[in-house]
Design goal:
The protein is of the alpha+beta class. The protein has 1 helix and 3 strands. A 3-stranded antiparallel beta sheet has the order 2-1-3, with helices on one face. A hairpin with a 2-residue loop joins strand 1 and strand 2. The longest helix is centred in the middle third of the chain and has 11 residues.
């Protein structure tokens, strides 16, 4: 397992930094990361946030 660290931005403002554990054998899909962020930060549901690496 590897860990991907990324920042979540909302309207060019920093919200948080999250760590996502994944298996390198399988590709990471955009909707997986989106669902992960919403599960950790439910206040971002239905808001146009961005994921920055």
């Amino acid at each position: 397992m590897k860990t991907l660290t990324f920042d979540v931005m909302l309207h060019d403002r920093f919200v948080c930094t999250l760590r996502y554990r994944y298996c390198p054998l399988f590709p990471i899909e955009e909707n997986e990361l989106h669902d992960f962020v919403v599960s950790k930060r439910p206040t971002l549901r239905n808001k146009p946030f961005r994921i920055e690496f």
